Amino acid sequence: MVSKGRWTRFEDLGSSSDSSSSGEREQPRRNQRKRHVLVIGGGVSGLTTAWKLLEANFRVTVLAKDYAPAAPRIVSEVAGALWEWPPAVCGKHTDATSLERSKKWCMVSYNHFSQMAEDHELSLATGVRMRVANFFFDKPISEDAETYKKVQELKNSGVKCVRHGFELIEEELGQGAHSELKDAYQHLAPVIDTDQYMRWLTCRVVSLGAELRHAESMHCLLDIEAELLHQFKADAIINCTGLGAIVTAADDNVYPLRGCLIRVKNDGSSMPKVSKALCVPHDDSKAGTGNSEDLVFIVPRSEEVLILGGSVEPNEWGLDLNLDNSALVRAMLDRCVKFLPGLKNAELIDDYPVAVGLRPFRKGNVRVEAAGGPSNKLSRRSGSRIVHNYGHGGSGFTLSHGFAEEVVQIVQRMLEIQNPLPSRIADYKLPGTDSTLKDNIARVGRKTRHAWCARAVGNLLDFLESRHKWLRHYFCCSFRPDRSLILGGIQSTPAR
């Protein structure tokens, strides 16, 4: 237990025997003398960030309520996970700063996923494949400034096989089909089987040496920062809690954008096999409600599963939606069948026909920054070692590798600038010296270990007592009348 009523530790997963699905478990690197980072959140954002930190030679502990595979599935397992150039089809970030940052991040991810897909064995292990993604419009793209700009950026981005033109409609949908459509573009995009990828990603970070623990936060991280840093002997905390940032960052700008997907068999038995993604983006100018009545999202998730969607519902928290109780889900299926008539005989996946998840959106900019940064006006505290990484909405997979690499850079800069507080008593410098208690004991221990140690601990406690107020602020320490020190729940009595 980290803090009663705040974090509850249930189980340690770090030594899982089946932690690697892609071969033998890699030997964890030696953790001695490494900077230790605590990552809060076990979705695609948290685990990708953990992965990048491990590759940058940090020691990493991850805290999350659940990890994939989970029952019920975590939101990263039910995501659409079709890579897109921002702004995305299923719910758009409109903030200019967010869009510019996202365009850099998405290309980092594109290149990583492309490399995974090109490696046959890695593609099979991760569930990452490259597929043609088509986007159709009911008016010429040249008449919509935002979409026209998006297509031009795509052509110059490095994304593979970008094409734009009316002829794509007949090529992909058939001659005479959908006379209401006027334009289209396509490109090669990563498509991720989220169930498979999240299992692989969890195994990947464990194989690199991460420790995974089950825990749930019920308080703002700034309020318990010192306690967490001390409890885990950590140098920094990364907040990847998604919608949980409403609590962990006290951020009222975070809200859910509910999405729904129908899962059908794509094995070619009940309907023609679909091998390309087919999408009709939501037209914001037609939005009479929060729902996206015109959105079509047909994506081959794997060789056996096709997902049909989609929906965009702001501030809806309920997850109990299915074809029997929701007119929205039935209308979504009808739209997809109308768009691609071959789907009328599609068979639902029996064990999991409808997936519902809450995209973690944020009003304004996504939040990837240090909590103690000079430009940060939200939940700011000078000298804080918290880095926030949330608010990516429905683009978590698309942006994951890009923002994770930026988080690593922020942590590296932060720890270079700050003078880290000692996480152990032995690392405190003794009064009037430049050496720590540990150093001094090692140097003279062979001759006068016991006597010197007693004097050193006494001197150390005098030093700590003189800074009692400072310690209470950072480490929740206190002294009893007999000079015994309460540090993180452990009583230390001074040597006599």
In brief:
This protein is of the alpha/beta class. The chain is built from twelve helices and 18 strands.
Overview of this protein structure:
- Helix 1 (44-55) packs parallel to helix 6 (194-207), helix 1 (44-55) crosses helix 10 and helix 2 packs across helix 10.
- The protein has helices at 44-55, 96-118, 120-126, 145-155, 167-173, 194-207, 221-231, 245-248, 327-339, 396-417, 437-466, 468-475, and strands at residues 36-40, 59-64, 128-137, 163-164, 183-192, 211-214, 236-239, 254-265, 277-280, 296-300, 305-309, 313-314, 354-362, 367-370, 386-390, 478-479, 485-487, 490-492.
- With 496 residues, it is an alpha/beta fold.
- The radius of gyration is 26 Å and the shape is elongated.
Measured by DSSP, the beta-strand proportion falls in 15-25%
Distance between the ends: 32 Å
Structural category: alpha/beta
Helix content: 25-40%
Order of helices and strands: EHEHHEHEHEHEHEHEEEEEHEEEHHHEEE
**Computed CA radius of gyration, to the nearest angstrom:** 26 Å
**Individual helix count:** 12
Q: Assign an overall shape.
A: elongated
The biggest sheet amounts to:
9 strands, mixed
Q: Which ranges are low-confidence, i.e. pLDDT below 50, for 5 or more consecutive residues? A: 1-32, 468-496
Average pLDDT works out at 82
Kindly state the number of beta strands. Answer: 18
Task: List its traits.
elongated, nine-stranded mixed beta sheet, 12 helices, six-stranded mixed beta sheet, alpha/beta
